[in-house]
Amino acid sequence: MARLSLAMIVRNEAGRLGACLESARGVADEMVVLDTGSTDGTREVAAVHGARVETFPWIDDFAAARNASLGLCTGDWTLVLDADERLDAAGGAILRNAIQKPGAEGFLLTVRNYLPSGAYLGVHGGAKRNPGGFPGTEGLAYVTEFPALRLARRHPDLAYTGRIHELLDPAFEALGWRARPLDAVIHHFGKAEPERERAKQDTYFRIAQAEAAARPAEPRAQYNLLQEAAMVGAWGPCAEAAAAFLRLQPRAPLKVFLDGARALRELGRLEEAGALLARAPAAPEGRPVLLVAEGELRQAMGQPERATAAFLEAIRLDPHGTLPFLRLADWLRQSSDPAQARALLQAGLDQNPRDLLLWEALVGLGAAQGDLALAGRDAWEALTAFPEGGGGLWHQLAVHALLQAGHHAEAREVVCRGLAAFPAEPGLLRLQAQLGSGNA
Q1: Cα 52 from Cα 49, distance rounded (Å)
Q2: Torsions phi, psi of 38, nearest 5?
Q3: Angle at 159 between CA 156 and CA 165, to 5 degrees
């Protein structure tokens, strides 16, 4: 019987690692966790869940750490997971059966990224509705998916390449191996925690810049720089990376055209942005997000009618997409038409009642108008959809609206709920003190 090793690299993942290891328990014959410098209880959590824990000095190179983890494995096959991922329960038996097949060399698993809003872009287009069925994802209404080579037969020449967004695929090609698709899902939760994601971005951008400089003729290095530059708003490097990628590989993912065009627009190079969008692939699934990009460009060009038409067509093609609602509502707000902006956001929420960014936009609209009663009512409805949303601000707005209406007992209850979700939030602590002293 072929043996399977789980190979992981981690750093400061004490809060998430246990769930990942539990999802692989009973599937992997051994679990190897390589720690790259944790200062929390990550190593202890790994050991408690039955993993063998080793250490590796971090050198700004994800491939180097991955390869070190592979070198510690003793199984015939390796499964690679990150701490913010979980193997689907149905996938365990599928993986065990797959690695027994004679002649098999590797398998592509579906990585499903869970998202709190439909305003996110995948490699080839927008987010789609969460198909459901996995525990703990009820509050995450959207996903993007992509196939990834995560299960491979061990071989001395099989190694990751790429300092960031590292891949096994080039090594597979060099060996003449083929990865087959496998009907197994890896559930990824990292993008559902935007604060954690933002905390990594400066580091990721720095590593991507270094790799693109070291490997200027490698399309993947330019793609990684493009997406990391877009995340931090470094529009000059983003535009340069898009141009470099297209010189090296004219047939490009939609994201190259979208991020490249946005960078050019942000830099004021509007005609170039339009020319780049005109070159984008015209697959039907990508049409709505291309229309959003066109609408944003028309706004920048001072063509409001054409911008509005593009956004409305995007909504018609995909009423479950969030971006056109957000972009057009923001345009209406800036044009001093908050009533129309509000109506549009509410229409978006009718179609997408569990979209976090639509709720944030609606609550923010009332607050920007100075109508705290309205913002408070919106915040209360938003908390119904996302009880731990708003970072404490929604609770505060709801409390102020209740106090204006003279509902002190209900206001105290909302403060308690807010502090249960955000125990150290200063505004909620001040409200608790005021209500407790009878000064509110």
Answers
A1: 9
A2: -65, 145
A3: 170
